[in-house]
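Here is a protein:
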Amino acid sequence: MTHAPVYISAREAERLLDRGAVLRVVETALKALSDKRIVNGSKGGFSLNDQDGQRHMGAISGCDIAAGVAGVKWFAACDGNSRRGLPRVPATILLCDAVTGLLTGIIDATSLTAIRTAALAVTAIRSCVSRPLKKATIVGFGPIGQTIARYMPGEIDVAEIVIGSKSVGADTFVRSMKTGASPRFTVESRLDQAVRHADLVVTATGLSADTPLVDADWLRRGATVCALGSYQEIDSRIISGADRIYIDNWEAGRQRGNLAPMIRSGALTRERIDGEVAEVVAGKIAGRASDDQTVLIVLVGIGALDIALGAELLKQVRLLGAGRALE
């Protein structure tokens, strides 16, 4: 049966995909990726830096074979958008039938990007921690950091989540959380104090240049570090000193992200990487061997996850008669 292609707005995407659905789709997609039942396409793009500011624009792609959906996500990281009152990373997903190539859907994926990234981070972390955590710290509190803070409770056993940020929004978020609920949320503007004694450190700063903010001397032995930035946010000594390093995609990680500078300099080779996140989530590789191992997870984005979430959205839209038909 041929369906007319549909347009799905950002608001509709958020309404149709709750936290449970997003986490389920991402975990299932990662396991399928490890078995090659999902195809992750190449990542390409270009950078601009002129009178209009610094921008990076690119495309990531993939195919959910079981769902019969392929597609591409076009995104743009525009540093000047915050002062324009616009999202820093607008994105659009185009979906097509994986057999015929015919257009099936267009999704405003600006908010979906933060949702996918947060779900990927939480799923990866969950596979690399072996005991209840006393303290987890989120460094940076933009859309991705906020979504991780919402997704973490109930998925990772942690007593306290510390927001390492000077943002007024961080205080507002903490006040909005239920008093006395577990985990307890706090804000710490001093970055060294936010990171010290943390069992888990997540960096989602939205930096526009390599600026290592998290010092290796602040990190406790046996911590799990999950670095999400497009540029280097963590001390190179954290990378060189990690007992285990996992990345979501080696080829993408060579171009951007926390490992890219060391890979380009030759200080880090592929042989030093212990595996890809999909293999860890699928149980093919153990996330850690002991509690005193320092585990580093570096994420730069998997296009196949965007397509898997797009396929789930398309299914929900057709079941519920939602979206806007594009005749």
About this structure: The mean pLDDT is 93. DSSP finds eleven helices and 16 strands in the chain. The first strand starts at residue 6 and ends at 8. The radius of gyration is 19 Å.
